[in-house]
Design brief:
Layout (H helix, E strand, L loop, with lengths): L6 E3 L2 E3 L6 E6 L2 E10 L3 H18 L4 H17 L1 H12 L3 H21 L6 E4 L5 E9 L2 E5 L7 H12 L3 E5 L5 H14 L6 E3 L4 H10 L5 E5 L2 H12 L4 E5 L4 E5 L5 H13 L9 E7 L3 H13 L19 H17 L2 E4 L18 E4 L16 E7 L2 H9 L6 E5 L3 H10 L4 E4 L29 H4 L1 E9 L13
Parallel strand pairs: 7-8, 7-10, 8-9, 10-11, 12-13, 12-17, 13-16, 15-16, 17-18
Antiparallel strand pairs: 1-2, 3-4, 5-6, 6-19, 14-15
Length: 495
């Protein structure tokens, strides 16, 4: 009998009002049911928003340093349960245990960072243009935040959003991905144990078309933070415009790693293997394109093909596994469809290209790490986000040529350049159109205390992580104190 889980609304664990439920299964072994979860709808969202709205009136008045104390406890609890959380996450979404440990650590780091920010929600004081008048600005919470998160980082990304939202004095209605509801539920349980008051955080499980749409369109939700596909992000932007909600969108990527002819090739090889096939390529920052200088192309490709063939697929909980499964059947079918696209476009398949079979793989959604060469910038596999273990390899004659190829996409999230030449490195830092650029490192590896996000159709300009996320979850309020004892008219009396 599968374990049954519930929504958390107004401090109570409750079923969906419809009584419906969905199953959560292990992508490495689809016969294994992790649990059943409520298939919620608009009515459940209404209850959660109502509870969050009521809780906001008290929570916003709690001093930020007191909210910091809860964040610190949160980090401590997560640290003590790190291994348990990591194993649970691998079982639920498939990536290898070393990666899920990193996912949990990102959440721990975010909690501790938030604890510090509770004493650093700085405003500014400036001189007034009039005598006997004081002028200042300060940050204030906004209200109810709708948080909609993906399955590939089921601990890190929710903490990126929920911890700053709550630390800033907002309340939250949280919709996690249907593929990772267990990790999200455990996170909420830990938040309650740490001392977050009832109804400050509410979790509503279910599909995007039902729960997500209801959150975005709800008149009492003041702001929405979403991570997911660009297609869905555009629709959220349109729907939220009806009520002029503040919206943060962290969307797709088609990230590239450039390897110049003067690069450390062994280091670059480690970087592209990690970037392309870590998390089975299921990251918005994954290395989906590799741009090689002509002079090192043949040598590097020989090294890359050899190493890729040695990657071991399997259950992420087992020692020695390099690459886990796709998260579900639909995701693997998407990967398979892009393999066919690449073939039809005239690219050359040099490694992989099929669903993986063999010992321990038949019950899961495994796909071979796949590499295409002879890829041109105009091909779909060089332009569209695949979200799977497919790497497209392109050539470049120079750094300028490589940067033009890298920028030739609607996305602009992460980027990477391997070179020993400091002048080339700084040129790349200046000219690459991306929110993140790594020099001599992979396209993946963001740190919790720095801004995270992209340009072009990767998002709408907001950033997660670091100090910048607090600009999204707070409103600036300007205050004037006139102690002159008379009416003073700014910009009139002083000129």
């Amino acid at each position: 009998m599968a374990q049954k889980f519930q929504n958390f609304i107004n401090g109570k664990w409750v079923d969906a009002k419809s009584g419906r439920a969905f199953e959560n299964r292990n992508p490495a072994n689809w016969e294994e049911v992790v649990g059943t979860f409520p298939k919620s709808g608009k009515e459940d969202v209404d209850e959660a928003v109502k509870a969050a709205r009521a809780a906001f009136e008290k929570w916003r008045l709690v001093p930020a340093p007191a909210r910091s104390d809860i964040m610190r406890k949160l980090g401590d609890l997560m640290a003590r349960r790190k291994e348990e959380l990591a194993r649970e996450m691998t079982r639920e979404m498939g990536k290898v245990l070393a990666e899920t440990r990193g996912d949990v650590q990102e959440g721990i780091d975010t909690a501790y960072y938030a604890a510090g920010e509770g004493r650093r929600l700085f405003g500014k004081t400036v001189p007034s243009e009039l005598p006997n008048k004081f002028a200042m600005s300060m940050r204030v919470p906004i209200g109810v935040a709708g948080v909609i998160t993906p399955w590939n980082f089921p601990m890190a990304i929710p903490t990126w959003k929920i911890f700053p939202a709550v630390l800033s004095g907002n309340t939250v209605v949280f919709k996690p991905a249907q593929d990772t509801p267990k990790t999200a539920t455990t996170l909420v349980e830990i938040m309650m144990e740490a001392g977050i008051p009832e109804a400050v955080v509410n979790i509503v499980h279910g599909g995007g078309s039902e729960v997500g749409t209801a959150i975005v369109g709800h008149p009492d939700v003041d702001l929405v933070s979403f991570t997911g596909s660009t297609v869905v992000g555009k629709q959220i932007s349109k729907d939220a415009a009806e009520t002029l909600k503040r919206v943060s969108l962290e969307l797709g990527g088609k990230n590239a790693q450039i390897v110049m002819d003067d690069a450390d090739l062994d280091l670059a090889l480690d970087g592209v293997l990690w970037g392309a096939f870590g998390t089975t390529g299921q990251r918005c920052t994954a290395t989906s394109r590799l741009i090689l200088h002509d002079k090192i192309y043949e040598k590097f490709m020989s090294m890359l093909v050899d190493r890729t063939k040695k990657l071991k697929l399997g259950d992420g909980l087992k020692a020695g596994t390099d690459v886990g499964p796709c998260v579900n059947e639909s995701q693997r079918k998407t990967v398979e469809s892009y393999v066919e696209v690449g073939k039809k476009e005239g690219a050359t398949l040099v490694v992989g290209g099929a669903a993986a079979k063999g010992d321990g793989l038949s019950k899961g959604w495994f796909h071979e790490p796949t590499i295409f060469t002879d890829v041109t910038p105009a091909m779909r596999i060089a332009k569209e986000e695949i979200f799977g273990p497919i790497l497209s390899v392109l050539r470049a004659k120079s750094l300028e040529d490589a940067i033009r190829t890298l920028n030739n996409t609607i996305y602009g999230l992460s980027s990477s350049v391997y070179t020993r030449d400091v002048n080339k490195a700084f040129t790349a830092m200046r000219d690459i159109q991306a929110g993140i650029t790594y020099i001599n490192a992979s396209t993946i590896g963001a740190e919790a205390h720095l801004p995270f996000g992209g340009v072009k159709q990767t998002g709408n300009g907001h950033r997660e992580g670091g100090w910048t996320v607090y600009d999204f979850f707070t409103e600036w309020k300007t205050v004037y104190v006139d102690y002159s004892g008379k009416l003073q008219r700014a910009q009139i009396d002083n000129y």
